[in-house]
Amino acid sequence: MPFEDPPSRLACATQHAWTAAAIRRIEADFNRSADTHLIPMSLPGFPGIDVYFKDESSHPTGSLKHRLARSLFLYALANGWLHAGSTVVEASSGSTAVSEAYFARLLGLPFVAVMPASTSPEKIAAIEFHGGRCHLVRNACDIAGESARLAREAGGHFMDQFTYAERATDWRANNNIAESIFRQMEQEPHPVPAWIVCSAGTGGTSATIGRYARYRGLPTRVLCADPEHSAFHAHYAALAAGQPPPTAAAPASRIEGIGRPTAEASFIAGCVDAMVKVPDALSLAAMRYVNARLGRRVGGSTGTNVVGVLAVAHGMRARGDTGSIVTILCDGGERYAHSYYDPDWYRAQGIEVDGADAIITRAASGTAALPGLQPVSRHGDPIRHDPPRPAIPA
């Protein structure tokens, strides 16, 4: 008895042909795109410590999330989750949805982005430019559930970046962000970074970098900088202390693209060597500092990363270490004209500006450490060189 009847074989062959053509389109798009730049920025007062930005804003959709969206589409296609005409649905604070709308249009698939109502209008416009539809919800905690519902009703597929980001990316190679960073650093004075600093939206970037460094036998450590309103730091700190993670949801993050109300499945704590909690005022002051130093606008998540860089740099200098630090320039500031680059927004949010700017300027010049930042590590505190603690589970 045949395994399949002829109509089933025909349907299977048609689906395989469509999937193969879809993957070729995505790979061809990748081949048309150059790699992103690595930009040096000197820190006054830190001789022998070199800082670099991996500029992910130069992707076709303008952010780090372009890599993730490509990986998520390839993962869904390889798993047989996407078909011709499938409605693609994603829960996002904006940037991933912009990138997924780009790839959905590339494959001729309808796309729906489920986002908090507070998402920047610039991101909404970018999603719609790529042919996507925006479905806004009031509570950020509801975006995953609402996405799953919409996908079921449409007979489509919920991409679910917060679950699949860490496993969709090929962390061993395939020009992931880690491989790209280490390749571009090869001719620098300190080619193997002492630290790579990133922030967590899904946790996919920290997982990719941490896994790649271990896989290649490299001593590079990963610091994850978490914004003021986010659950990742508390989750990590509890595990580092041998305690159960908190279950209460954190408030919605004001730093778009990073921070989550709960620690998502894609956040792999064992891939992170240390974490630091960053007040929003300092994230945005560091954003403005980078804007002035590089002569271009960057987003708030880049500012969060820079606060992490400063924490690491002060620790290295205190121990007399030299070396390099690489961080991520996540996206451009053009998407935040209505918020981070609008004085009225700061007044409405009650975020102090002048004092925070002064703190970042002093920290970047090396004249004063950042006040109140308490790094937490699963190895004691490698930033401050404290005795090691037991490793937390992955």
Automatic annotation (TrEMBL):
Give the enzyme's main class according to its UniProt record, as a single word.
Answer: lyase
Compositional bias, Basic and acidic residues, is annotated for: 378-388
Arranged from A to Z, the UniProt key words for this protein are: Cytoplasm, Lyase, Pyridoxal phosphate
Cofactor list = pyridoxal 5'-phosphate
Query: Which reaction equations make up its catalytic activity?
Result: L-cysteine + H2O = hydrogen sulfide + pyruvate + NH4(+) + H(+); O-acetyl-L-serine + hydrogen sulfide = L-cysteine + acetate
- UniProt record similarity statement: Belongs to the cysteine synthase/cystathionine beta-synthase family. Cds1 subfamily.
Q: What does this protein do?
A: A cysteine desulfhydrase that generates hydrogen sulfide, H(2)S. The H(2)S produced by this enzyme may modulate central metabolism.
| This protein's name | L-cysteine desulfhydrase Cds1
